[in-house]
Design brief:
Glutaredoxin; five-stranded mixed beta sheet; about 20% strand; about 25% helix; alpha+beta
Length: about 140
């Protein structure tokens, strides 16, 4: 059975507190995106991931921020990453664990340390059909 690709959303506008004004390409989030591209290239395409740069994940107090998402799986948002190659390798290792997990839930003990401490939020899978069990909204 083929493993569906994991989308890794990378906030390319993230910046550290010390980066008051800098070109967009030099921000910490953009550097992390570059490190992820380099790490993925070094791995020779063996990782079922898609890197998706995004303008903002609204976790500005915890840069650098990424998210893992895939159809039918929980979506995770993580923060507090360094914008370097070792961090990128850890993120790709975790993305492989996420891809292998049927529901996207990576057991805490198996997560790289950076992902144990960096969880910002998780969201349940988007339902395949609307639920009819929800109460009507108040008017």
């Amino acid at each position: 059975m083929a493993v569906e690709a994991t989308s890794i959303h990378i906030c390319v506008t993230c910046r550290s507190a010390s980066e008051l004004v800098e070109p967009a390409a030099e921000r910490a989030g953009a550097r992390l995106h570059g490190a992820l591209r380099r790490a993925l290239a070094r791995r020779g395409g063996r990782d079922p991931v898609e890197l998706l740069p995004v303008e903002c994940l609204s976790v500005c107090k915890r840069p650098c921020t990424i998210g893992f998402a895939a159809r039918g799986k929980w979506t995770y948002v993580y923060g507090d990453f360094a914008p370097d190659d070792p961090t990128a390798e850890a993120i790709l290792d975790a993305a492989s664990l996420y891809a292998a997990a049927p529901d996207g839930l990576i057991p805490w003990k198996q997560r790289p340390d950076a992902l144990k401490k960096g969880v910002v939020a998780r969201f349940p899978p988007f339902p395949s059909s609307p639920s009819h069990d929800l109460p009507e909204a108040a008017e």
